[in-house]
Amino acid sequence: MRLRDAVVVVTGASSGVGRATALQCAGRGARVVLAARNAPQLGEVARECRRRGGEGYAVPTDVADERAVRDLAMAAVARFGGIDVWVNAAGMGIPAGLEQAPGRDLRRLLGVNVLGAVHGARAAVPIMQRQGRGVVIDVASLLGTAVEARFVGGYAMSTAALVTFDEVLREELASVGEHRIAVCTVLPGGPRTPVVRPAVRRSGRAPWRPVSARPSECVARAVVRTAVRPRSRVLVGRYARPLHAVHAPPLAAVRRGSLWTAGRRVGRAAAMLVVRAAARHRMRA
């Protein structure tokens, strides 16, 4: 896909990875729809997008609100006629361990990090199906899937859920023969620094092993490459690939193992049915 004149929706666009992604897309001539709660910062990003040669259209949005996300999608279609790429980059962290984190904060975190992406996909996929094409990109992290998560358990839990959501969405689309929409998960080798910085300040320690948390611009470059050439999983960072290889067995192997196990269970069940039928036949005889 060429990004020039493509319509790219980016959530979390007021700062961090979302902002960097929006600016890099604009630099390639994309028409970028910017979503976040902070309207003044969105306006600044929109102006910077225009300075870089693209278009920037700010739509203040709380991604935890499903209706607001649907309105965001409709605003993109009304303004530019469609949606080519949807990037879920909105995220937050809680500066406390799971035992100390208030329930209200945990619900908000899951609402933004997980349900925000779910809302985005549910809003974007039907539009992409009508168009016959599209790319959905979720920015997650290896934190919670392959990296020890201390002091930021809520964030790690949400990224693990996001990875699972993407796998399920890919399978559901494939099951109905929809292969024109790519669902991509970008996995930096460490957490996004702006999201977890409060936890570092409070604890005085880094909440992960030293796996090189990637600068926002580096992760954004991976997002842009994924929009141009979609892949299911994109690892970002020097140590991301070996960590992922060690902690996450290849999905195809897991599927083959599951099918083999299921086949054995079915085979045993069928054998038992045959044995029981033979026993009943002998009793009648």
From TrEMBL:
Is the keyword Oxidoreductase in the record? yes
Q: Please provide the record's keywords in A-Z order.
A: Oxidoreductase
Q: Does the keyword Oxidoreductase apply?
A: yes
> Which chain positions lie within coiled-coil regions?
none
The record, for InterPro entries, names: NAD(P)-bd_dom_sf, SDR_fam
A Pfam family it matches: adh_short
* Similarity comment text for this entry: Belongs to the short-chain dehydrogenases/reductases (SDR) family.
Instruction: Kindly give the PANTHER family that the UniProt entry links to this protein.
Output: DEHYDROGENASE/REDUCTASE SDR FAMILY MEMBER 7B, DEHYDROGENASE_REDUCTASE SDR FAMILY MEMBER 7B
- What protein name does the entry list? SDR family NAD(P)-dependent oxidoreductase
Naturally occurring in which organism (per UniProt): Streptomyces yangpuensis
